[in-house]
Write a structure and sequence with these properties.
The chain is of the alpha+beta class. The protein folds into two domains: about 1-30; about 30-160, no CATH class. It contains four helices and eleven strands, in the order H-E-E-E-E-E-E-E-E-H-H-E-E-H-E. Strands 6-7-1-10-11 form a five-stranded antiparallel sheet, with no helix packed on it. Strands 3-2-8-9 form a four-stranded antiparallel sheet. A two-stranded antiparallel sheet has the order 4-5. The longest helix has 30 residues, at about 1-30. It is globular.
Length: about 160
């Protein structure tokens, strides 16, 4: 009887700790979402981004058609003042845009093969500026607050990625 009680207590403790850890990980990832603001050489706002290697010769990350959504809507970036965009998908200095729009991509049953994706790249180096503004949760009214930063030349106070 004593062994069963110890076993039950041990299993309960492990399950309890596992749930806490999973919950903490979820909370951390949600609260650490970064506000990334960028400018491009042309308007690529309707096109799906992929991530290239440092030499921009191979795709190292791309979304599933089910992953091109943000908060239940297609992950189009939010238009800001002076041709800046607020990212909703995962832009970085090695991102490139495909010839497929978010709408077209979201309707695919599966992502195209890597060689097909490489042939769909519109521009390998589309960015003129990229800034990481830190945690997105710091902005109660994202567009208004970031536009104020842009207007007051405040982006220079943040980490410039490119």
């Amino acid at each position: 009887m004593k062994k069963i009680t110890i076993l039950f207590t041990t299993v309960s403790f492990i399950l309890f700790m596992g749930c806490k850890t999973k919950q903490a990980a979820t909370t951390t990832s949600q609260s650490s979402e970064s506000a990334v603001v960028y400018k491009t050489k042309a308007d690529y706002s309707k096109y799906v981004p992929v991530i290239l290697d440092e030499r921009k010769t191979a795709i190292v990350s791309y979304p599933s058609p089910k992953d091109v959504f943000y908060r239940g809507k297609l992950a189009y970036p939010l238009a800001l003042d002076n041709n800046y965009w607020l990212d909703n998908r995962g832009i970085g200095p090695h991102a490139a845009f495909l010839k497929l729009t978010y709408e077209e991509y979201s309707k695919l049953n599966e992502a195209p093969k890597l060689n097909e994706l490489m042939n769909m790249i519109l521009e390998r180096d589309p960015f003129t500026e990229i800034y990481n503004l830190g945690a997105r949760s710091q902005f109660a009214h994202e567009a208004a607050e970031i536009n104020k930063l842009i207007k007051n030349d405040g982006l220079k106070n943040f980490t410039r990625i490119k």
